[in-house]
TrEMBL record:
UniProt keyword Kinase, yes or no: no
Name of the protein described by the UniProt record: isochorismate synthase
Catalytic activity: chorismate = isochorismate
Gene3D superfamilies the UniProt entry points to: Anthranilate synthase (3.60.120.10)
Record keywords: Isomerase
InterPro entries per UniProt: ADC_synthase (IPR005801), Anth_synth_I-like (IPR019999), Chorismate_C (IPR015890), IsoChor_synthase (IPR004561)
Residue ranges occupied by any Chorismate-utilising enzyme C-terminal domain in the UniProt entry: 210-462
EC number per UniProt: 5.4.4.2
Species of the source: Chlorogloeopsis fritschii PCC 6912
Molecular function via GO: isochorismate synthase activity
Keyword Protein biosynthesis belongs to the record: no
Top-level taxon in the UniProt lineage: Bacteria
Similarity comment text for this entry: Belongs to the isochorismate synthase family.
Amino acid sequence: MTVSPCSVDFFVYNKELYRFLIAVQQKSIKSNSTQIASISLEIDSVDPLVVLDKLTQPNQLNFYWENKGKNEAIAAIDAVAKLQIEGKDRFYKSEEFIKYCLSNIISFGKTEAPFSKPIFFCGFSFFERNCQESYPFSAATVFLPRWQVAVKGERCILVFNTIINAGVNVQRILHILWRKIEILHSLGFYSYHRDCQQPKFSKKSVAQPDKFKHSVLSALKTIQSKNVSKIVLADILDVKSNTTFNLFNSLNNLRHLHPNCYIFSTSNGQGQNFIGASPERLISIHKQQLITDALAGSAPRGKTPAEDAANADRLLNSEKERHEHLLVIDFITQRLSQLGLLPQVLPPRLRQLSNIQHLWTPISAIVPDNVHPLKIVSQLHPTPAVAGAAPDVACTEIRRYESFERGLYAAPLGWVDADGNCEFIVGIRSALIDGDRARLYAGAGIVAGSDPDKELIEVQLKLQALLKALV
Ligand SMILES: C=C(O[C@@H]1C=C(C(=O)O)C=C[C@H]1O)C(=O)O
């Protein structure tokens, strides 16, 4: 049953909700502490991207997440609780923040439905601190949204989180909720048309290709002489458009162009957005079943089926690419074992995207109750897929070679719920959007045997895939 302010059930619900909110308020008064009421209701289906487009304000944090393969999309708008920090223990502090918030949340509604429990949205940066002072996102942002609209298959769930203390007017809160449901219903018929009109880019600068190739050559020498077997080097593409980038049309393009990737966007509430279409899952945990992707080793898609199959064959049999890939598997299995988990390496396969294909090995494990998802994220980030091997040494080299701030690029981005379910991706194939400017990021793993020309082609291929979607 879905709820709407005009349905017959509305009055029953309204009464029940009123009683619930009054009870939460009484608890807040008794315990002299602020409580968070989390109300979940099934509503008529609406596209979460439309919700984000129509309901978000520029000064609010927001988060968008879509996985077409799993028939899932979530929009999270505005924050009732947030943490923005930096430093070595940012994952641990985020975990503590989430646990503290959860101890003050009281839920109402259909909590057995998908995405009906309070969810915390998280974005971390690649390094524990951003060196570039003007970089617009914190090294860690975690927030509990005020509004969350999620679609899973045919079902659409609204979660409304609201602060309750002695001073709030419960009637007014209910009025805000029903008004929002009315607006959401009015958005149900709205849909996007693909916007293929590329803007005119008045300025487009690839960080000089020669500089990138020079860095690859230099990294190869370091790999020969030092205790590091892989360094992932990234490059940027700065674009200035003649109009402001349209975030929602760009995301709509991304989900059509990359249906088998995770589509994501997060805003800092100050006008900047970090968006992308990532093929790489860092971890997902569903009912204690963890899956992580070892994804490294790349080849272009072919123009014909025969060329495509030949490229795939070459990739699967290339000693260099397999070595690059194995470093990631070894690291992930080691780190999971250190946490007391028993990783199972599943058979290797190909992850074929619209313009590129990767070697892909899913790894699974059962997560014990006492291991929080963010503990696993902190153990796994950064993997050799985006840093190198060993990651610590590789990170020092990355700072030496790359003259730009990685920020949220190649870093964990995702959500965690109250039951330890979560999904985090690695923020690759991504861009920072700021008005009429965009900075696109892409990288490639350098190992002994890497060819600077081929690595540059790989990076450019990845950048182009994203550039095509921006409008
Ligand atoms: C670093 C990136 O991608 C990573 C590097 C890959 C490679 O070098 O083969 C493949 C997939 C990703 O793990 C990126 O896209 O920016």
